[in-house]
Amino acid sequence: xxxxxxxxxxxxxxxxxxxxxxxxxPIQLQGEICEDCPKxxxxxxxxxxDTPVSEAINRSLNEEIISILSFTEDxxxxxxxxxxxxxxxxxxxxxxxxxxxxxxxxTIDAEVIYEDRNIITIMLNSYSFTGGAHGYASxxxxxxxxxxxxxLENWELFGDLDGFEDFAETKFRIQEKIPQDAxxxxxxxxxxxxxxxxxxxxxxxxxxxxxxxxxxEVASYADxxxxxxxxxxxxxxxxxxxxxx
Length: 245
Hints:
By secondary structure, the protein is α+β, with helices and mostly antiparallel strands. Helix content is about 30%, strand content about 25%.
């Protein structure tokens, strides 16, 4: 009897772990393939379940794609497919006026990088070239509360936002070799107002909460993105949703 009860308990635990994970399918979108068409390739996860959090994930990814691809304020562009078409039409219009315009391109890749019972984080990497000296690459983190079924703003991740920001600044200075008593821009950074601030993108990862300053956010394009990972055992006290480690 004990052996059977043990087996049932193990199966129950495995079942709970499986049920706590959201189900996804990969979706790939591509633009028109022609000589005068931009290169567009999009790979994103599509949440399958009929739940508020799945709807929030799919809606947010759709909005991110529209934001990256659309150059207009046209409210009729409300799907990724329409955004692809808008990007293509914008390129063709420019190409008509400037025949020597170099081909535009955009790639967008998204994946789930963290999930527990309370939160799920999706990392979205994008690269766009629409003329000029170089393209622009960026990383975005989308954090979702699985129980509330909604996307979270950065400040909603923390129970003690001020404490976390102070801790992050200390760690940032150590990593980037900025003296603790010096101006935050003393070594060449470009923080607005000469004051440390958290990046636009903060996400949960398996190694800890990751902060990423994209190109131009606090440094030059040549410096690339600036990343900082803070382990959960050091920052759990600041988080609103604690992580087991």
